[in-house]
Amino acid sequence: MTVGVFVLLGSGASAATQPIPGSPLDAYNHHISYDPGVHQIARLAALIAYVLMVSTVVLGVTLRLRFMQRAVNRATFYGAHMTLALSAMIFGGIHGLTFLYQPIWRIGWPELTVPFVGGVQRVPVGLGILGTELAVAVACSVWLQHRLGYHRWLRTHQLAYASFALIWLHIFLVHPEPRHLNLVAVGVAAGAGTVLVAFLIRLFPSASRLRQRAFPSEVGGAR
Questions:
Q1: How far apart are CA 117 and CA 68, in angstroms?
Q2: Residues with pLDDT less than 70, the chain
Q3: What share of the chain is helix, strand, coil (3-state, %, to 5)?
Q4: Which residues neighbour 59 within 8 Å (Cβ) at sequence distance 6 or greater?
Q5: What pLDDT score does 128 carry?
Q6: Cβ count within 10 A of residue 132
Q7: Which residues of 66-77 are buried (b: 16+ CB within 10 A; e: fewer)?
Q8: 109-126 pLDDT, tens per residue?
């Protein structure tokens, strides 16, 4: 029994000291070169994309609720929302492309475009790819708004929340940094909390819809 306890403790200790897949230590153990400069670019692009993503969601909810449009024109809000969304996807794309230049990740174009086919951290990486592609689909739906109709397009546009959830899971699972108490973890948690609050606010009907339900004849007459 004592021997069994020591074996379990030894296996647990060895598991705890296993390098993070795709990390510099993992590359060193496999005798594969690792570029720290590429790693820094990937990390910085990911952080910028995350901040832009949170800002896009918050501005989208603000645009929907219309409570600041007396101070700022709606077209300005819409343009800023689209610019932030496009910038978030660009930096997310840069983040993904950097891994083509880290041999330890063994990522090529198929692994970068098809979710859950990579070898290293297949599930976390697949969640990030799926979330990014869903965000691209949501963005492209803007050009199909007239064909889809407003309400159908709005349901499609709301998949942006699912996209954010998938990308957040990717961030949380792919590296232990967001799971420990540090500045990055606080920022990731604050961003997720902000998006959650925005989503809950979005669930409530807007003032115009409440007014329409309360005074349907008055709204109809105003038309």
A1: 45
A2: 1-17, 66-69, 205-223
A3: 80, 0, 20
A4: 77, 80, 81, 84
A5: 96
A6: 24
A7: eeeeeeeeeeeb
A8: 999 999 999 889 999 999
